């Protein structure tokens, strides 16, 4: 979205093919698929979760463009939960790096990690669930409610172009149809999602999956985080599928019961 909003990439822009990573200076930034994805455009870069594509896209942005888009999606701030220790997370900016490393103490290499959600970026599962709901609805989402709480309207429409949000939604649907999120498929329900695998210096990778459904008219959005579990597509996406399957099966049963009651009422003698 940051690249689309800045006009440095379009839906079908392609960069150098993915050979399994990207060389920047004296460092090799690897893609999750060690043998590489080969040639991918922007759409298939998202569908296949190609790190190499996003490394190259990141280098065409500056850190503050990425920061502004992330803040527009309500990352980097508390969600207003009732939990005293809720974390705000961290969305780096040039000012952040200047404070941390000094004005000449960092370079554009930070963009490669930030472009794939690594580096100094920190988010919470609640932030990711709300971000997914916001993308699904262009921002028309209420603030979260915990147990017994009063529903409050959210901040309103996202300050991002609707054609860009629509493209992201459509491509997230392809992630589940043919990409890294196929384990989140649910019979009879179109699901749109995105997998993520977060490297963890203290142990195994964290598995992420965010999604909304039905893709064409969203009712629910969710974020799954499984600590030290591995790949998001193989570990977190199936959890989403089980929850969505149960949710929509229960909804279908309730709708069927209402329909039967209406039919019986209609057929009763006057």
Main beta-sheet strand count, sense and barrel state: 3 strands, antiparallel
Q: What letter string, H or E per element, gives the SSE order?
A: HEEHHHHHHHEEEH
Spatial strand sequence of the major β-sheet: 3-4-5
Structural category: alpha+beta
Intertermini distance: 59 Å
Tally of separate helices? 9
Describe it.
By secondary structure, the chain is of the alpha+beta class. Helices cover 40% and strands 11% of the residues. The chain has 9 helices and 5 strands; from the N terminus they run αββαααααααβββα. The strands form 2 sheets. The chain has a 3-stranded antiparallel beta sheet with strand order 3-4-5, with helices on both faces. β1 (21-24) and β2 form a beta hairpin. α3 packs across α6 (109-115). The model has no long low-confidence stretch (mean pLDDT 93).
